[in-house]
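step=predict obj=DUF2178 domain-containing protein n=152
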Amino acid sequence: MDDDAPTRWGRTRFGNGTMPTMWLAAPAGAVLAAGLGAAAVLSDAAGPRPLVGGAVVALVSFAGLTGLVWAFLVDRRTLRGATERPEESVESVWFDTAARGAFTDTVTVTGLALAVLAVTGADVPGIAALTGTVVVALVSVSVRYVVARRRG
């Protein structure tokens, strides 16, 4: 098989050569998961049976950490079926448009809420205010993305 042929899991480039990305991602994910399990044991977060709890933390986090390492290491050009320039896709344009508009929405709604709170003298906990800001941003991006997709 050609060393540069696109594969399902991709390859990682080192100098002049390449190697399958999972050859690096799986061991690195295992090491990170073991470290997370050890941290759970040392911080008493592993429950009444620390070794079992640490092993469970390591096992549960292994796949996610392996995927995270894979995402950092893989060369997109070696993935079968990957979009060549994803930043130029129509979905990317829709998201950029939605995010720009959502920023304006979030600043406007947050500013109006701040004005109302200043005038009324109401006391709102910080966690509620920040949660409201995040919810406004998420809803605005979602709605604007759907609208852009329907128009596009």
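step=describe
Residues 90-120 form the longest helix (31 residues).
step=end
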